[in-house]
Specification:
The protein has 514 residues and is α/β, with parallel strands linked by helices. The protein contains 15 helices and 22 strands. The chain folds into two domains: 286 residues, Aldehyde Dehydrogenase, Chain A, domain 1 (3-Layer(aba) Sandwich), CATH 3.40.605; 184 residues, Aldehyde Dehydrogenase, Chain A, domain 2 (3-Layer(aba) Sandwich). Helix 3 crosses helix 7 and helix 10 crosses helix 11. Bound molecules: nicotinamide-adenine-dinucleotide.
């Protein structure tokens, strides 16, 4: 049966994806102010990156939906009194959402693998981490405290926090359920409504999350999900006068643009942006451990990770030996569909994104770089329809080359030599980004020195790409503004309020016309 918007039942599932997606009851609807309905925006087609087949379609949102969702969010807060629910009452809802995510782990994982190409191992872990985020924020909310501050007069002074109203949350396609949870859980915990704008390349998981939230008893209207283009729906959300805070994860150019919108409105904004993170190998490192960590750090998620350790600095005394070992290990990585449990490097999000990565590698070649492995689409005919790219190691350039400057967001690492700590720190910091850094050494004093000297939001020593919701996450320079996660994460969705209460009962000096 054709829908009124002309999409046959809104869903087209190719044979290869059918087995996976049949387990997931996709809706071709958006979620506006507590109501599921067909969008009236352009058609969003979700393509299975492993096969190139469209597996689902829906009509996206339009800017008018933003008005309705924001007004609905304000109304929902007022009608339900969500902002006045006691912390343990809101926390109970968050815990039920966590239960719902856990109960739906396999559905979420299958959906996200079909939508983004990621391995099932990774998408299962992302769903588990999203549940953990809701549970952690519930605990943080229940134990959050205000302060009675030292008084400087005959009064008691309280430092408290209160909800902001409606929060706009804009997310990218590379880890949808985890990015969603990282924003929606603390924003709801803080007593706000949330209008989420998921990416057009991977909108389904956020819509599924909205259903889990509803089933968990989240009052209707507190969460809207409006998939649609950033330039229209995303900007309308950022510009809306009743959106009190914007939280964004995505590219640096987009983030900078949104920061300008936020500046005009004087709206607080949290930005989690791009990276070009250095991973450093000293000559005293455990080589096998470093090789394994570098492979995981740059090639997991097919390199489509903001924290990918894409600039590998190796101490000159071991450079050639280490590079040979790294290239051999990279050639052994298994490229394949995310549904194959043996796969390590899955397809990229779309063929057009893959082609963009390939073009950057070609440009580096033209500029004199040596491609030591990868640098091409796999020749395996079984992979011909997917958005695959072989994991790639590049050398023979210096840190000023474009391939060392620009975020590639694909399975590409550049290896560079360094001489000593001063040379290393200068090169590592010679980038506009400041998101993450990895250090491989057996000398912990040196690791500590380098960790302090490299400008980055997160440093891993003898490990990489490990995360904990209890540990704050942020970027410096062009990698971001503000912090997510951790106990203080909830407060970034609240306004600070101070209250003075007189205890003296005597008139202030100007009483009686003094
Ligand atoms: P993107 O900036 O193109 O899009 C991100 C989101 O912003 C999408 O939902 C998109 O529709 C929306 N958007 C785009 N233009 C907009 C506009 N003008 N106004 C409002 N919204 C707009 O980024 P992407 O390609 O989806 O994601 C990849 C980028 O995200 C990479 O740079 C990566 O490093 C970054 N990222 C950062 C982190 C982090 O935590 N620092 C995590 C994941 C991804």
């Amino acid at each position: 049966m054709n829908s009124s918007n002309g999409i046959a039942d809104g869903i087209v599932i190719d044979q290869a994806s059918r087995g996976l997606v049949d387990a997931v009851d996709l809706l071709d609807e958006i979620f506006v102010a507590g109501h599921w309905r067909q969008g009236s925006g352009a058609v969003i087609s979700s393509v299975d990156p492993a096969t190139g087949e469209v597996f689902a379609q829906l009509h996206g949102a339009i800017p008018d939906d933003v008005d309705e969702a924001v007004a609905g969010g304000l109304r929902a807060v007022a009608d339900s009194g969500w902002d006045r629910w006691l912390p343990h009452e809101r926390a109970a809802v968050l815990r039920r959402i966590a239960d719902g995510i856990e109960a739906n782990n396999e559905r979420i994982a299958v959906l996200q693998t079909t939508d983004t190409g990621k391995t099932l191992t990774e998408t299962r872990a992302l769903a588990a981490s999203a549940a953990g985020t809701f549970r952690y924020m519930a605990a943080a909310l229940e134990t959050m405290e205000g302060a009675i501050t030292p008084s400087r007069g005959p009064y008691v002074t309280f430092a408290t926090h209160e909800p902001m109203g409606v929060v706009g949350a804009i997310t990218p396609w590379n880890s949808p359920i985890a990015s969603d949870a990282q924003k929606i859980a603390p924003a709801l915990a803080a007593g706000n409504a949330v209008v989420a704008k998921p990416p057009v390349w991977a909108p389904w998981v956020t819509l599924l999350l909205a259903r889990i939230c509803t089933d968990a008893g989240l009052p209707a209207g507190l969460l809207s999900v409006l998939p649609g283009p950033g330039r229209t729906v995303g900007e309308a959300l950022a510009e809306h006068p009743d959106v009190a805070k914007l939280t964004f994860t995505g590219g640096t150019d987009t983030g900078r643009h949104l920061a300008h919108i936020a500046a005009d409105k004087l709206m607080p904004v949290t930005l989690e942006l791009g990276g070009k993170s250095p991973t450093i190998v000293f000559d005293d490192a455990d080589i096998e451990q470093a090789v394994a960590g570098i492979l995981y750090g740059v090639f997991s998620s097919s390199g489509q990770s903001c924290i990918a350790g894409s600039r590998v600095f190796v101490q000159r005394s071991i450079h050639d030996r280490f590079l040979a070992r790294l290239v051999a290990a990279t050639e052994d990585l298994r490229v394949g569909p995310g549904t194959d449990p043996r796969t390590q490097v899955a397809p990229m999000i779309t063929r057009s994104h893959r082609d963009g990565v390939a073009a950057m590698v070609e440009a580096a070649r033209t500029q004199g770089a040596t491609v030591l492995c990868g640098g091409e689409i796999p020749s395996n005919p079984e992979l011909a329809d997917g958005a695959y790219y072989r994991p790639t190691i590049i050398a023979g350039v210096d840190n000023s080359a474009d391939i060392c400057r620009e975020e590639i967001f694909g399975p590409v690492a550049v290896v560079l030599p360094f001489d000593d700590e001063d040379d290393l720190v200068e090169q590592a910091n010679d980038t506009v980004f400041g998101l993450a850094c990895g250090i491989w050494t057996s000398d912990y004093r040196r690791a500590w020195r380098i960790a302090g000297a490299v400008r980055a939001g997160t440093v891993w020593i003898n490990t990489y790409k490990q995360f904990s919701i209890s540990t704050p996450f942020s970027g410096v320079k062009d990698s971001g503004l503000g912090t997510e996660k951790g106990r203080e994460g909830i407060k970034s969705y609240m306004n600070q309020k101070s209250i003075y209460v007189d205890m003296a009962g005597t008139p202030l000096p100007w009483a009686g016309g003094a």
